[in-house]
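We modelled the chain as a single entity of 75 amino acids. Its sequence is:
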Amino acid sequence: MKARIEVTYLPNVEDPEAISIEKNLSMLGYTGIEKVSIKKIYEFTVNDDSYNILDEIASKILTNPVIQSYKITRD
């Protein structure tokens, strides 16, 4: 089975990479872009027994719970 872990910044936490992209777009003359946000997506192929460990992997390895959240989905 395929599964995804999607990592995003929590609301009100600045995303430095997105801010940099916004500034560069503006400097290059692109207008009408109001907000950029970035998500990291990790894709896993796991068996049914291993699906349950993805929550632990996400919370202990892939995210900083102080500034990020995650969502696990099955494909």
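As a brief sanity check on the tokenised model: The first strand starts at residue 2 and ends at 9. The helical segments are 16-27, 54-62.
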